[in-house]
Amino acid sequence: DFDDTLATTKSMIRFTRPDGTKGKLNAEQYASTYEDLSDLGYEFDFSEFNKVVDGKTAPLFEKAMKLQGKFGPESMFVLTARPMESAGAIHAFLKANGLNIPLKNITGLANSTAEAKALWIADKVGEGYNDFYFADDALQNVQAVKNMLDQFDVKSKVQQARVKFSKNMDTEFNDILENITGIESIKRFSIIKGRKRGESKGKFRVFIP
Predict the structure, then answer these.
(1) SS3 of residue 39 by DSSP
(2) Is the separation of the CB atoms in 54 and 89 below 8 Å?
(3) d(CA 61, CA 5)
(4) I need a labelling partner for 57 at 20 to 30 A (CA). Which of 79, 132, 137, 206 fits?
(5) What local confidence, expressed as pLDDT, does residue 38 receive?
């Protein structure tokens, strides 16, 4: 996988609700909610995902570099829910950071379902591959691929990529507070102003994150 596995980016997925209002999600938010939102009639726009916006290496990039050093990049593949048009930008980002996966090995499925990734892996088994290492940040993708590979007589390991909680704890906590209080997560308050805002709050209300 690319987003939140090999790289973190500020590329956003834009959506339109059934009532016509619009919004946007980052890759992690989309991966965990797209099934529910699709059922609710949300429509998604992936045009920004043709680019790698403010890309930085993610949790399993170093693992990929070690695999490249041991086996070479020719049998390494990037399988992403982004459109195929994003392959060039992904290839350029990876190459700039020392990971030389061939452009032809970067597949944009333009499909966010776990089944799409599992079926792609099954096709690779059909081509004769018999030893797999698969990593993805979305648990449903990891589970679907594991279930697929378990049906074949091949060696395999699947792993869920996780960003250390401490690295994005501040942002996530502020987002939680925004959902509860309505105060934008980007706002910052001085100690004095914070105390003034808190004076009217109930003393015995316990908040558990």
Answers:
(1) helix
(2) no
(3) 7
(4) 132
(5) 85
- Rounded to whole angstroms, the Cα distance separating 73 from 64 reads 9
Q: Could you list the beta-strand ranges (E) of the chain.
A: 7-8, 13-16, 22-25, 43-45, 56-57, 78-80, 106-108, 131-136, 155-160
| pLDDT tens readout for residues 69-88 | 999 999 999 999 888 999 99
Q: Which of 7-16, 109-118, 173-182, 198-207 has the lowest mean pLDDT?
A: 198-207
Nearest CA among 77, 75, 105 for reference residue 6: 77
The angle subtended at Cα 22 by Cα 19 and Cα 24, nearest 5°, is: 140
Residue indicated by tokens 């490249």: 68
In 3D space, the residue among 19, 14, 41 whose CA is nearest the CA of residue 30 turns out to be: 14
pLDDT tens digits along 124-144: 999 999 999 999 998 899 999
